[in-house]
Amino acid sequence: MPHAVISDVHANLEALEAVLADLDARRPDAVICLGDFVGYGPDPVACVEGLRRRLGGAVVGNHDRAAIEQLDISVFNPYASAAIVWTREHLTEEVRAYLRELPETLRTSALLAVHGSPRDPVEEYLIDAAGARESFEAVEFDLCVVGHTHVPGVFVHDGESVAALPLRPGDPFELRAGHRYIINVGSVGQPRDGDPRAAYLWLDEGAGTATLVRLDYPLQKTQEKMTAAGLPPVLAERLAFGR
Ligand code: ZN
Predict the structure, then answer these.
(1) What is the pTM of this model?
(2) What residues have CB less than 8 Å from 3, skipping those under 6 apart?
(3) What is the number of domains present in the chain?
(4) CATH code at position 6
(5) Which residue range(s) make up the domain with 232?
(6) Which residues does 227 contact at the CB level (< 8 Å), separation at least 6?
(7) Buried b (16+ CB within 10 A) or exposed e, 132-156
(8) Calpha distance 136→41 (Å, rounded)
(9) Ligand 1 centre from 71 Cα, in Å?
(10) Which tens digits make up the pLDDT trace of 91-148?
(11) 160 C-alpha to center of ligand 1: Å?
(12) CA of 154 to the centre of ligand 1 (A)
């Protein structure tokens, strides 16, 4: 029963289309999205409309909340808040309604899904083992998938200590019984780990593995659209560096 878990599309339609084409070919049982559908990129409506019917479940991200005026943009950096102001002006009522209905957490038989962290589902950034430990201790789960930092990786709790481990593209990460995991699936539309390719996670419950997938997409096209839309140039430039 393989699942695909995607996150942080951030209105990047070209990156999303590359991921959806890959999912069409690989046919997972379900696709789950961990939020931040919008913000930064030039195609918020096309991304939400292109994705929503494909999803078996989704949760809300902080940029989604900000785009529908449910989160104050004073906590954002100037470029992110400029993109949110732009996004607010370009959403449809249907997309607003969809974002408004997204839950903060989703539980399936296999996993807990959140945008930020198990203990603070929308806003906390999990960046190190110490932060991950607080969530392992605060919430019950065996496997949790997160996004938000745009940096893929795994936190593993072996019953005593918590370690932060890398996820390498195409290299299946073994999920062991008796261990607990928080897996960051990376970002489809705005990677920040130095690799500009779109990222998503392939979760194979039968095999007990989690594999990071990376895909090239025509990012120059996204950059041109961002420039034409009047979005901050730095947001377009960073796509080329994955930062
Ligand atoms: Zn994000």
Answers:
(1) 0.97
(2) 28, 29, 30, 31, 32, 56, 110, 111, 202, 203, 205
(3) 1
(4) 3.60.21.10
(5) 2-240
(6) 233, 236
(7) bebbbeebebebbbbbbbbbbbbbb
(8) 33
(9) 14
(10) 999 999 999 999 999 999 999 999 999 999 999 999 999 999 999 999 999 999 999 9
(11) 31
(12) 18
